[in-house]
Design a protein that fits this description.
Helices cover 36% and strands 15% of the residues. With 311 residues, it is α+β, with helices and mostly antiparallel strands. Strands 8-5-4-9-10 form a five-stranded mixed beta sheet, sandwiched between helices. A hairpin with a 5-residue loop joins strand 6 and strand 7. Helix 3 packs across helix 9 and helix 4 crosses helix 5.
């Protein structure tokens, strides 16, 4: 099990990362918790050269501490990267590029915009655990002024499918209750079964209970080895309350922190950030979110700025 070593508050943060060497040591610790491992041959022995590179004793190749990470090729101090990551994680509502540009003294909006998008791009772990238990699934339109027509695209709006995990239990009064646990999001072209069913299969463990409304796009769920529960809106009860709560929180976050000024091609990155935050909302210390983001940052290489603009 990887040791979770992180500053619990900002005072500890500034004491711990006061120099570039402090940052380099922490990246090494998080990237190689069991000690150095050569990315070329997996050898465990190396020495550090005068240029600060790891020289493998087996294949004789040099490895930079930032190679293959989000920091690769950066011309800015690692201390600045660490401060941006801390601020991004320490504030429960996140940060916008415009606010950070002014507060951190970035000369270019595009630079800090690129940094934040690079960080968002590594927030989703490729091998994360699938949702399980009782999963509410629904879709929502984001952006634009007019409401979208279900099942089809809507000009100026993005269609997003949302899955919310819950654990069902019986309370002390004998009433059926359900917790609100993890979430998943995906931008889709339309609410057809061709888009909805793959989303469920990619994110939910088999034999889980999938709870939806009566939309026809969900009719094939049972054929994929899931339990499917349809809830028809009869007007006197809230249908899918947990997924609708999450959708409401998502829209408030996009409108509040980012003023709703998000392009459709970048929306998935913001959904990934919201998911990262929401799924760790019960963390005791904000530093743990910083640590989790650092784990992702040192094991994944983010797209370049040009690639991000094309997304």
């Amino acid at each position: 099990m990887i040791k979770e070593n992180y500053p619990e508050n900002f005072e500890e943060f500034i004491d711990r990362f006061s120099t570039e060497k402090d940052c380099i040591n922490y990246i090494s610790e998080v990237r190689w918790p069991s000690g150095f491992s050569c990315p070329h041959c997996n050898n465990k022995k190396a020495w550090i050269t005068n240029r600060g590179l790891y020289h493998c004793s087996n294949c004789r190749k040099d490895t930079s501490i930032t190679a293959g990470t989000i920091f690769q090729g950066t011309q800015k101090p690692l201390r600045l990267w660490f401060h941006v990551m801390w601020l991004m994680m320490a504030q429960k509502t996140g940060v916008s590029a415009l606010n950070l540009k002014d507060n951190m003294g970035f000369g270019s909006y595009q630079t800090i915009w690129g940094w934040l998008h690079k960080l968002r791009s590594v927030m989703v772990c490729a091998n994360r655990d699938l949702l399980k238990g009782a999963i509410e699934v629904d879709e929502t339109y984001i952006g634009g002024q007019k409401s979208g027509k279900r099942g089809r695209g809507s000009e100026g709006k993005a269609l997003v499918v949302v899955a919310v995990e819950g654990t069902e239990y019986i309370d002390k009064d004998g009433k059926e209750k359900k917790t609100l646990d993890r979430v998943r999001f995906r931008c889709i072209e339309d609410a057809s079964s061709e888009n909805l069913i793959p989303f469920i299969c990619d994110n939910v463990k088999k034999k889980s209970k999938i709870i939806t409304d009566g939309w026809s796009g969900y009719n094939k769920i049972k054929t994929k080895n899931y339990i499917h529960e349809k809830i028809v809106d009869i007007g006197d009860s809230e249908v899918l309350p947990h997924v609708h709560l999450v959708i409401s929180l998502l829209k408030k976050w996009l409108q509040g922190t980012h003023q709703g000024s998000i392009k459709q091609q970048h929306l998935q990155l913001y959904l990934d950030e919201f998911s990262f935050r929401f799924n760790r909302r019960l963390s005791t210390h904000r530093g743990k979110l910083f640590f989790r983001l650092m784990q992702q940052a040192v094991t994944n290489q983010a797209p370049g700025i040009k690639e991000l603009y094309k997304m």
